[in-house]
Protein: Aldehyde dehydrogenase domain-containing protein
Organism: Penstemon davidsonii
Amino acid sequence: MFAMKVGPALAAGCTMLVKPAEQTPLSALYYAHLAKLAGLPDGVLNVVTGYGRTVGAAITSHMDIDKVSFTGSTEVGRLVMQAAALSNLKHVSLELGGKSPFIVFDDADIDKIASLALQGTFINKGEVCVAGSCVFVQQGIYDKFLIKLVDKNQYERVLKFMEIGKKEGATLLTGGGKLSNRKGYYIEPTIFTDVSVRI
């Protein structure tokens, strides 16, 4: 997120003020430290930590800030837009809650697109703000797409791994079973705790 937002702005000759989420400030502070070591002049990249209701609000309403890019909830996005409009009518880019749609039409190459749909959903373990986790498939290829997307062999493999986890002493906190009320090969959201890691 930091690189995605800061890199292009710096390349365009802009100065940046970054306010990371209050729960996760260390990586942004470290990136700023690395930028200084790389020779970026003082004042070009600035990181300010704190809570959104105080620091974030000050940023969005500041008269000398020309643009705000915000990633977060729709509720806070509305507040960002209001503050931008009431201050200097600064430009705003918002990336808010919701699902990024992955749309598949009848003329798609099913083999290729099924693989891309899986990658789009689970890249970086699904921890990506633009994960294509909402898939819309045109009716003409829907059944063929499901067969390609959800493989019975993979489904059985995952169930087998869950059984191995239980046998090896991991505690099944929730889930772990088949979802039989859906068409296709689905498994309940599953969480294991007390897992022994073998390296």
